Amino acid sequence: MPKSKVHIKINFTLLIPLAIFGYFFYPNVSTIIIGCTCYAVATRWFNPDADIINQSKILSFKGILTLPLRICYAPFFKHRGVSHTLFGTVTRMIAVIIFFYIVLFLYFMSWKFITSGFFSNLDFMQVSVQTTETSKYFLESFASFVTTHKAWSISALIGVFIADLLHILSDRIL
Description:
Layout: H1 4-13, H2 15-25, H3 29-44, H4 61-65, H5 67-72, H6 86-116, H7 124-148, H8 150-173
């Protein structure tokens, strides 16, 4: 099983050939750039080894970017389990969505606490409804973006899944 730096070298070595290969299927530069960017992000920060992310420093650039995975993913998945399948990619995406929902809820809770001054005036149900309405707005906006920019969305997903697939294959081969 290769170390993290080996996975990164393998994936980044294949980035340009994969981009050229992708360009033959869909010759649109912006779509290829989005796919390559998502591929690079998935290679560096969103990879199947996110379940052992707690071993790296939290007060680093990588540590801050992996905060959603540290909180909502790593505690619940063991290394080389579900994370080292393509279903693991989906679970990491769900974990990031859950993290941002929690952040949104805490934001509204703190805002209500600051404006009310005391917990006695704090209505948890109202905060929950407000969080749900805001997250519904974000999801609708996201869904609208995805349907408007289908090629970009598919390219982004392909980039993430290919990066994970190469990570998993290199784990099994090397």
